[in-house]
Amino acid sequence: MGIDLAFIWAFLIAFAVLAYVVMDGFDLGIGILFPFFHHKRDRDTMMNTVAPVWDGNETWLVLGGGGLMAVFPLAYATVLPALYVPLIAMLLGLIFRGVAFEFRWRTKRWLSVWDWGFSIGSTVAALSQGIALGALIEGIRVANRAYAGGWWDWLTPFSLATGVSLVIGYALLGSTWLVMKTTDDLAERARRVARPATYLTLLGMGIFSLWTPLIGPHYLGRWLSFPAVIFSVVVPLLVLVCVAVIISGLNTQRDTRPFFAALGLFVLGFIGIGISFYPYIVPPSLTISEAAAPHASLAFLLVGALVLIPIILAYTAYAYWVFRGKVRPEEGYH
What is the pTM assigned to this prediction? Predict the structure, then answer.
């Protein structure tokens, strides 16, 4: 039996997307939380906690999107027309956020404008990602190997709920990151934000988990089949464990635990989405094998990926290691 390169590439792209979500999620969360922190000194410190890593985090988005185009061209060609609006909104939000990140350090007169630009860009990017995810879960209509839906098919109550839930989840990542990386009053206020964000994220995950099987019989059947049914029993317990670790860490000021437990929530949710999708890459129309490029192309690109991904992981880990520890208001990387 030969190696299933399409499955390997599906795993690599899923890994890239997960890496982007957990790494860029907390710095998008910083922007989402900007309106809750009014003082310039606090906002400067918040931005300094992510200044060394925020742009590198988006490498994974490029890898995931570029990989999808190269190895699953049919999926790319059907997903993009279906999600043009939220994806363009996401890119504009990321661009505006990046510009605001740099410009707010260079101006005094327009500081409040760029602060709002950073916050709005981050929120729009997060909301658009959640809406795109919700629309993909609901399904994309494909006929004759092309998108067969309408211009506004992505806009549904489920996709909007998913978008809002992701914004709240990113706010949780951002607040727990601040708890881990800051000190004194700023860290304490981040704790006060993290507690309700934890419960709201738990509520969003619960609604999402109950709503998804009602979308289509393929999801319900998938979760009731073996071995996925084991995960459907275990995952609620693991989610509650993560929530307990977050709250306990916040209450006892063990500052690293809440952030990594919040990451655990996202990993569990992502695994659940992966189980729901398999074997589809564009549910319920295209399977992984149907959307894959020719075997020779997959093999050729895999060689490059096996070289590139370890390099990205190495320099990312090195950057986080060099800039580990807490950031104090009188210090900064910028």
Answer: 0.91
